[in-house]
Automatic annotation (TrEMBL):
Key words of the record: Membrane, Metal-binding, Transferase, Transmembrane, Transmembrane helix, Ubl conjugation pathway, Zinc, Zinc-finger
Source organism per UniProt: Pseudomonas fluvialis
Name of the protein described by the UniProt record: RING-type E3 ubiquitin transferase
Residue span, E3 Ubiquitin ligase MUL1-like domain: 89-183
Places the protein is found: Membrane
Length: 300
């Protein structure tokens, strides 16, 4: 009886998990698809500050181009994964990830009106260039590549996957957009002053040297007021310096629960893919609910 109860509990855990997880995935992907379709495409020069959608062409950065770690191919962004194949105690082949990585270099997107720098950290990147192959060595650049032969006649092998974005390719991007410099950045004095004070506090001894006029080892109320005044003046000076710099457009991960997506495919293709994934999530939710009901009915 104990075995039956344990088996029932495990089955219920899987069915409930499929139901809840599928439902969450369905709602999440459907919501993201609607956001993509409802957000109009903006031109970089006239884009509003905040959550925007851009479409343009990737450009090379000024610094030397990146090279993908597995194929040594020049690119502007990469992601890779290396999996090792080995046999378990039952002599079954198992794949496990032994190494992976993602480029954090910024991207430069251009359209007919201007350019925007994109910080790809935290983005869902859907690259058109994807390569997968097998080999007998962990690092295919350092040693000669193998192939499926190595998996058939050796106890272990490796599977590689590499994704890349290249200069000259189109890119669809949706995320948080803002412009620095060019006199467009407004000053939130209270916030900027607080940032300066926090920066100064990291060298508290230096702060005491500058503002502890009675040398008692602490900052009293009048001394702290002078700190606040000096920090405000410093914040205004920094803001003036930034405002004099040329305007620079930047896209980053949104702070709210909004999608941050970079894709070689257009908006319609991505939204359609999300809708199919939402449908798959709905099917998983329905099957999980039916399985849960069936298990509970047979348990009674």
């Amino acid at each position: 009886m104990a075995t039956d109860v344990a088996g029932l509990a495990l089955s219920l855990a899987f069915s409930v998990g499929a139901c809840v997880g599928g439902g969450w995935w369905c709602v999440q992907r459907w919501r993201q698809a609607r956001i993509l379709l409802d957000t109009p495409t903006s031109k970089i020069r006239s884009a509003a500050q905040g959550f925007v959608e851009l479409y343009g062409v990737l450009k090379e950065q000024v610094e030397p181009p990146l090279r993908a770690p597995l194929t040594d191919t020049p690119c502007v962004w990469w992601r890779y994964r290396i999996e090792e194949c080995s046999r378990d105690s039952n002599n079954k082949l198992r794949w496990r990830v032994v190494e992976s990585g993602t480029s954090e270099a910024w991207l430069r997107l251009a359209d007919a009106t201007g350019e925007c720098l994109i910080d790809p950290r935290g983005a869902e990147v859907r690259a058109a260039t994807r390569q997968s192959w097998h080999g007998s060595q962990r690092h295919p650049l350092r040693l000669e590549r193998g192939g499926l032969f190595s998996l058939l006649f050796n106890q272990s092998g490796y599977r590689y996957k590499e994704e890349r974005l290249h200069a000259g390719e189109p890119l669809y991007a949706i995320g948080d957009f803002h412009t620095q410099g060019g006199g467009r950045t407004g000053l939130d004095l209270e916030r900027a002053r607080g940032e300066v004070v926090r920066e100064w506090k990291q060298d508290f001894q230096g702060l005491l040297t500058r503002f502890d006029s009675n040398a008692d080892g602490r900052l009293d109320e009048p001394e702290w007021q002078r700190v606040q005044l000096a920090a405000g003046l410093e914040a205004e000076q920094r803001h003036r310096q930034v405002s004099l710099q040329p305007a620079q457009n930047i896209m980053r991960r949104p702070g709210e629960a909004q999608p941050f997506l970079l894709s070689s495919s257009g908006e319609d293709d991505v939204a359609r893919s999300f809708q199919w994934q939402a449908a798959a999530g709905a099917v998983a939710c329905l099957l999980g609910a039916l399985a849960t009901a069936w298990l509970l009915q047979n348990a009674l």
